[in-house]
Amino acid sequence: MANKRAPGHAETRDEWAAKIAALGEPGGTERSGKAPITVARIMEAAFGLVETEGFEALTMRRVAAALQTGPASLYAHVRNKAELDELLISELCARVPVPDPDPARATEQMLEVCRSLRDEYLRYPGISRVALAAAPNSLEALQLSEGMLTILLASGVPPRSAAWAIDAAFLYVSAYCFEVSLRHRPDSGADQRVLDRDSLVERYRMLPPDKFPNTVAHIEELTSGEGHERFEFTLTTLLGGLERT
């Protein structure tokens, strides 16, 4: 999480304290008021837009149009697009269930959390790019990180190893989902920048064997994997290899 910037501008200390104080209160993360435009409605419209058209289609103007209002009406509730992005990621993190720690099942529990986060990201194509660009500094993201940290520490993973593993897991889940979104864009079905397996195999077979002997010999292995097999392999390798005391 180090060396990443927070989206938008940083909250003041008082704003941060107010959010913490509101934890557990009904509607604590929503802004009050009787106006028909609310944070919840803005987020609902934004999620609907991303789910059907992809994250690239998300703009304040498009959200305003979906709510049959002008963009200026949104800024009374959401400062800018960067804050809206953070609200959406925070909501997705809040949806991920975190089990009570079971040291005997720590790796599987971490995989369950990562799978749930993956599925939330994949439901909204391209949205994981927000998580790639910013540290998880919202309370919802920190609560998810806290749950993962609790699982690893309870299983005997040293604190620094646990912290770095969580950071790596977050990064991998976000990058994996972003890559998938490039291959399966809602508008065109596939992104031209990403080759399908057949095209990749064809290019590998064109390589001169004397210069790429191992690549040519193992084309099948290099291009193998169905569904989420590579996702499972990568995270199982990462999490299963953690040293425990």
Which CATH architecture is right?
Answer: Orthogonal Bundle
What is the CATH superfamily classification?
Tetracycline Repressor, domain 2
Number of strands: 0
Order of helices and strands: HHHHHHHHHHHHH
Provide the residue-averaged pLDDT.
Answer: 87
CATH topology: Tetracycline Repressor, domain 2
Uncertain runs with pLDDT below 50, 5 residues or more?
Answer: 27-35
**How many structural domains does the protein architecture include?**
1
The gyration radius over C-alpha positions equals 21 Å
CATH classification, class level: Mainly Alpha
The quaternary organization reads as: single chain
Number of distinct helices: 13
Taking the sheet with the most strands, its summary is: none
Helicity level:
55-70%
Structural class: mainly alpha
- The separation of the N and C termini measures 24 Å
Q: Could you tell me the strand content as a percent range?
A: under 5%
What would the principal axes of the Cα set say about the shape? flat
